Amino acid sequence: MFVEKRKSGKNTKYYLSHSYRDENGKVKKIRKYLGSNLSKSELKVRKLETEKEIFNMIEEMNVRVFFFTLTKKKLESLNKLSEKIEIVHLNKDEWKKFEKDFVYNTNAIEGSTVSLEEVKEIVENEKKPVGYDEIETKNVAAAVEYIRKTDEKLSLDFLLKLHKICFDKTKDFAGKFRNVNVIIKDSSGKIIHSGVPKDQLSNYLKNFILWYEENREKFKPLVLASILHNQFEFIHPFQDGNGRVGRLLSNFILLKNNYPPINILLEGRAEYYKILNEYSKNDNLKPTLDFFIKQYKKTLKKVTTKKKK
Q1: Same domain, 240 and 179
Q2: What residues make up the domain containing 11?
Q3: Closest to 287 measured CA to CA, from 267, 273, 297
Q4: Is pTM beyond 0.90 here?
């Protein structure tokens, strides 16, 4: 929200403006009159009062998703999309298979050279992890077990713990939020995303948890997991390891809501980066949701052939 000033003769009129996207993606604006010839203190008071009024109006019309809003119609559409998956709960053996497939793919997306066969040997303790990639293989497997069994709630401490489990003994900043700015480049060296500035990181993270607490009941689990994953990657809270922690976070949300886990496959990496970029630039959630549904169906084929609702 920002204050607009308009000259009218010798008078200065003040308005508070807020832009938002409607269900068709068009930018619309709410403008509220604050008064004329206001002192700094008067303007401050009127601005705070009017901000609350505008937020209440938006709450009635739309559902807030961090820095954009969804109309109730759009929210219903996204929630309905998530009904395309079958709710299948994995048995013990299927979980073991999923864990190894997940560890292999989530690390390979980030450049790990550990093969699927080596992942199996490391997870089953047949091979002692030596190099960083192998240690992180063991660590991420432990993180999968952690999100599967933990009773913890989503919090900043939970995110730190998840990062610590994944990168213990491989990164000296394991379990610590970054105090540097980060950028993500593609293979040609082009910058494709910049994490939020380090001096704003704390506020973004607090808002991340607060939004979850206030809005989690409004979304179906798959939609909620999609939103949180996208926003987590947009924030990029760690110096490195955000992709793996973000994918674990998505599954934590699904498991917490009695939904099956999803494995994002290495073969889908290009599309995966594309949907993250679509959210970051255009606030578009549907590509992520479509992608998650597709990846879930592939996951299901790899671990089991049974279907349950």
Answers
A1: yes
A2: 2-62
A3: 273
A4: no
End-to-end alpha carbon distance in the chain: 45
Residue type, 150: T
pLDDT at residue 254 is higher than 90? yes
Q: Is position 88 within any domain?
A: yes
Q: Are residues 29 and 133 both part of a single domain?
A: no
As a whole-number percent, the residues of the chain with pLDDT over 70 amount to 94
DSSP per-residue codes, 202-221: HHHHHHHHHHHHHHGGGS-H
Asked if residue 102 and residue 48 are part of one domain, the reply reads: no
Given a contact cutoff of 8 angstroms between Cβ atoms, the answer to whether 188 and 157 are in contact is no
Nearest one of 212, 261, 201 to 234, comparing CA atoms? 201
Helix locations, 197-285, DSSP H:
201-215, 221-235, 242-256, 269-282
Angstrom distance (rounded) from CA 143 to CA 270: 25
pLDDT recorded at residue 309: 42
Domain identity same for 133 and 224: yes
Q: Is residue 106 assigned to a domain?
A: yes
Tell me the C-alpha distance between 309 and 292, whole Å.
Answer: 18
| Tally of domains in the chain | 2
Q: Which residues contact 31 (CB under 8 A, 6 or more apart)?
A: 4, 15, 16, 17, 18
Q: Show the tokens assigned to 184.
A: 């993500």
Q: Is 68 part of a structural domain of the chain? A: no
Work out the number of other CB atoms within 10 angstroms of the CB of residue 188.
6
Looking at the structure, tell me whether residues 110 and 226 fall in a common domain. Answer: yes
pLDDT, tens digit, 9 for 90 and up, residues 211-222: 999 999 999 999
Which residue type is seen at 168? D
Looking at the structure, tell me whether residues 176 and 284 fall in a common domain: yes
Mean pLDDT of 56-74: 75
